[in-house]
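Reply to dn_fold:

You asked what the input looked like. This is it:
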Amino acid sequence: MQAVESGVARYADEMTSTPNDTRHGRTRFASTGPGTRIAYDPGLESRASDPLPTPVVLLHPLLGDRASLNGLRDALSGSAGCSRRVIVPEARGHGASAALANRRLSLTDLAADVLAVLDAESIVAVHLIGEGLGGATAFELARRRPDRVRSLTLITPPLWGLLAGDADPAVRAAGEATRRVARQVADLADRGQTDRALDLYLDDRLGPGWRERTERSRLGRLRRHAGALAAALTALDSYLVTPDDVRGIVTPTLLLSSDDPTQVDRLVIERLAAGLPGSHVATTIPDSGEAVLHDRVIAFVSMS
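and this is what came back:
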């Protein structure tokens, strides 16, 4: 696997702003080369007279965008004792970032995109927080470039490949079943069968009837980002992680699961917790809501 290198990084504000403009919601762009435009919210920028602590980068899940993490972004950027610059990139195929024209994508590519954003902003190191696909990207970046990651928070990372070599046949079978479904979803999406792909992918995560329970605006965003399913799921399916890879993570790490994790989500968290060095923190959030998750992330970032 190729090393993560940042490549060419450049940015431009989409919105007209003054040097003192510190609003959330601006859009800048970074790139690692032709066709890899990465959109991101640069967050609150400190003035020289009032520097902020180490910035945070939030990486959203598959089918999400920067808005998916607004609650956590606001908590980190406005919390007493934890007021930080929070940068939120949008992965390829999501939001205002470049669309994915084919299935040629890897976690190494996604990690390089994040590095391009850091280089565009002249940021040396960050607290890195990723959910879902963003968690897998964060893991790869911390593995390849630990010097750029001050702390690592992984929320339900789909590191299914970690289960492929497990000693327990039932665990291996569960991981392979999830990867098999991911391949089926990727094939459906690649053939343009968007609704079938979304149903197969989200029924297991949100439960049958998820469409009826989902707001129309969110349904629109899911369909808009469904073009990323084929490439992203292929990248996750092909990303094999060994116990040695996990033990090699030297960054302080917090592990969190979603409110209602799948069996494979739980198994991945358990194997990560068992493999990470003893100084790392492992926590599961069982049906406790966003406020508790935000509080735990803020506490972890503040002490790292």
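The first strand starts at residue 28 and ends at 30.
Hope that clears it up.
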